[in-house]
Amino acid sequence: MRRSALRVATVSVLAAGLFLPRVSAFAAGSAPVAPAGTVLGHRVHVMPYGAKASQTGARNASAPAGAKLTYYGGRVVSHVRTVGVLYGPGTYRTYVTDGVTPNMSTFLTGTSNSSYLSWLDGEYNSVTPTPTAGLGQTNQRIGWSTYDRLVSIAPSAANSGTTIQDSQVQSELSAQIVAGHVPAPQKDAAGNNNTDYVVYFPSGTTICDTGACSMASGGFCAYHGTIANVPGYGEVYYTVMPDFTPAGTGCGTDPVEFNNATSVLSHELVETITDPEVGLATSNAPPLAWYDLANGEIGDICNAQQGTILGSDGVAYVVQTEYSNALASCVVSNPSVTSASAITSTASVSFTAGSAGSFTVTTSGSPAPRLSVTGALPSGVSFIDNGDGTATVSGTPGSASAGTYALNITAHNSVGADATQVCTLTVANPSGGGGGGAATSTVGRDFGPDRYATSAAIARDHFGPGVPIVFVATGQDFPDALAAGAAAGLMGGPVLLVQPTAIPSSISAELAALAPQQIVVVGGTGAVSDTVLLALKAFTTGPVTRVSGANRYATAAALSARYFAPGVAEVLITTGTNYPDALTGSAAAGAARVPVLLVTSSGIPAETVAELRRLHPGRITILGGPGAVSAAVATSLATYAPTVRRLSGVDRYGTAAAISQAFFGSASRVFLATGSGFADALSAAALAAAVDGPVLLSDYACVPAADLNEISRLSANQITLVGGPGALSSAVQNLTACSG
Fold first, then answer.
1. Mean pLDDT of the 371-393 span
2. Cα 97–102–105 angle (5° rounding)?
3. In the chain, is it the N or the C terminus that has fewer CB atoms within a 10 Å radius of its CB?
């Protein structure tokens, strides 16, 4: 047995032997506040202060003699999705708050599908390694990665202060997740966590764990850890990034501090992917994953060794090199273990109407390709990307489904060109003629590898070349896209999402295909920069304009003022501080051709008041319960319309169903989107409005009873899942009901 040597402020950080679990202590009177059922991790894995995280000129050096990572049977992260979290008010570095470009958000976005991560699957998946004697394996491939967005939280008093213990960080993050104040964790097709919360701290805040503290001798520059259980979500991974203001040269000597920060974060990111459960490990066995008993994790072996990687945004970022077992050296990438996608399964298959059928689409390539399909599927048959380089086509074709279907299957990874195959699916009538069971609703899926590609896929579902208008909004927050969905429903165009300073390639391709007559940017320059606005001019011969206000409330009011005349039948009111109640409302507003305006939970902003006075609506409908929009606000709203009603349910799923019931008497098509994030549902709002169908919210793992009851009431015969299997599981695609 040995002590854990993770705190030693040297480059070589571990000695051989077993782990000794440790529990963080709290300062007197600082007991953490966490939801009942939260189970904290008992240790973290640090990047030591004094490791010289980045060197002037960025260098590579040899790894320690005999270094080798061994697989101990724990999980890896299949498709890491990072979420930036600002831990409370205070002064942050501008490269953290996206106040300059490049910044930490562009770094995480630009490197997410770069060669810096693409090679990890070839060496450190948990499918192909020979397990250590007596240990199992989790059978996970390492595939695509995404960056979600940067959010701010307001920590409780018990978890605040100038010195914060790691246990308080875990408790607060758990509470924020359960409350819905940060994007919920997502899982891969097998139910393994995919989300890593990168938590940034303001200047003057010190983070400590078991006596070691940030930015101090004997302490650390950053660390990653694991919350053992967040109620309702299970394991959660997190990374702590202290403020670098007092770092001196202990966390890097590069004269550009941003380079030191990206190097440190890259160290933690790759360690999270290859050994995410280190915060729970108590011995050299699961949940430990890839580890070297003499030298530590993949990044520890290469501390103080840097290189650069060209991000997808064209920016060269400084990263720490990582250890390659295959090359026995510290590298930025190992192209020898990556390969382009190829589809290896049969190009033809047969089902029988009325009988269950299934086949698996298989691929080769590293990292594991992502699979998608276009072309109509038979009624009752679904296509599910399993996230491991395979997809399942399965179901029971309806009795009227006999015929031949051309499935255009695409396999994509970050290496080389996409692979495509036209698979012919033949549905035959059963022998003897008869036809087979009752027809079921067709279940399909619109999605892409990230929120931007998903919004493009949604637009492609319905809108064709020469569309009259396209609304463009940031993909990093919900209010602008929410208001845009209502206007898009009125004007007959889609909503596409962009990054604040760049147009993702998937959006560029869709804009080129749509060739819209005009483009409207929703939100100010902080949401969508002038650089992006100018770039959008290449995709239309018509005008590119901006609708914005001083804040989210003013932007929603400005959009309403531009497109909706006084005397509208109705105005939908929702909170501007949280998204769940708003998601279905955007589609309902678009279908009803009425605007959405925003309020706070306790007041009506002046911009909203002015617009309500101008509109003089016949009715105001509040979306969500008193916790979202208070009774006092509801009373005040009665000043601006003869009738005020409230639509709400026992939870976000019930609220979505209540909104659907109020606005849709029947619908042939229903959209299901995750209730744990905003981007997919808001992108779907314009499409849902165009086909006169609602957007309902689903749990990741199952379909809430409120949804199934509403689908039945509507007599819907087509259900479209919005978002990939990381957002809505295969069980949702099979319409598996939630228990209880």
1. 81
2. 50
3. C
- HSE value, Cβ hemisphere, 13 Å, CA-based, for 30: 19
Angle (nearest 5°) at CA 556 between 550 and 562: 100
Q: Which amino acid is at 424?
A: T
Give the per-residue pLDDT at 42.
54
Please give the pLDDT value at position 49: 53
Q: What is the DSSP string of 606-669?
A: HHHHHHHHHH--S-EEEES-TTTS-HHHHHHHTTS-S-EEEE--SSHHHHHHHHHHHH-S--SE
Q: How big is the chain by its Cα radius of gyration, in Å?
A: 26
Model confidence pLDDT, tens digit, residues 61-111: 578 889 999 999 999 999 899 999 999 999 999 999 988 989 999 999 989
Report the residue count for the chain: 740
Q: Give CA–CA dist 667/716, Å, rounded.
A: 6
Q: What is the dihedral of CA 526, 530, 536, 537, to 10 degrees?
A: 150
The yes-or-no verdict on residue 52 having pLDDT over 60 is no
The C-alpha angle with vertex 461 and arms to 564 and 559, in degrees rounded to 5, equals 20
* Residues 494, 667, 438: CA angle, nearest 5 degrees: 125
Is the per-residue pLDDT at 401 higher than 80?
A: no
Distance, CA of 101 to CA of 113 (rounded, Å): 19
Q: What is the pLDDT of residue 26?
A: 27
Residue 331 above 90 pLDDT? yes
**Torsion angle (degrees, nearest 10) of CA 640, 646, 651, 655:** -100
- Residue 691: the pLDDT is 87
Q: Is the distance from CB of 227 to CB of 267 less than 8 angstroms?
A: no
Closest CA to 471 of 690, 730, 683, 219: 683
Place of tokens 């990438």: 333
Q: How confident is the model at residue 379 (pLDDT cuts 50, 70, 90)?
A: confident
Please write down the HEC assignment for all residues of 229-285.
EECCCEEEEEEEECCCCCCCCCCCCCCCHHHHHHHHHHHHHHHHHHCCCHHHCCCCC
* Domain spans, the chain: 44-333, 343-440, 446-733
φ, ψ of residue 535 in degrees (nearest 5): -65, -30
Distance of CA 694 to the CA centre of its chain: 23
> What would the pLDDT profile of 526-546 be if each residue is shown by its tens digit?
999 999 999 999 999 999 999
**Crossing angle of the two packed helices 552-563 and 606-615, in degrees rounded to 10:** 20
Residue 740, CB-side half-sphere exposure with 13 Å CA sphere = 1
The per-residue pLDDT for 163 is 96
Q: Is the pLDDT of residue 30 over 50?
A: no
Look-up of token digits 């602008």: 480
Q: What single DSSP character describes residue 710?
A: H
**Residue 374 β-bridge partners:** 408
Question: How is 312-343 classified by DSSP, letter by letter?
Answer: TTS-EEEEE-EEETTTTEEES--GGG-EEEEE
Please state, in angstroms and rounded to a whole number, the distance separating the CA atoms of residues 424 and 607. 56
Ramachandran angles phi, psi of 662, nearest 5°? -75, -25
0.70 exceeded by the pTM?
no
Q: Give the rounded distance of the alpha carbon of 643 from its chain centre.
A: 38
One-letter amino acid for residue 351 of the chain: F
What is the three-state SS of 430-467? CCCCCCCCCCCCEEEEECCCCHHHHHHHHHHHHCCCCC
The domain covering 343-440 belongs, at the CATH homologous superfamily level, to Immunoglobulins (2.60.40.10)
Helices and strands, counts by H and E, the chain: 17, 35
Tell me if 490 sits within 8 A of 590, measured CB to CB.
yes
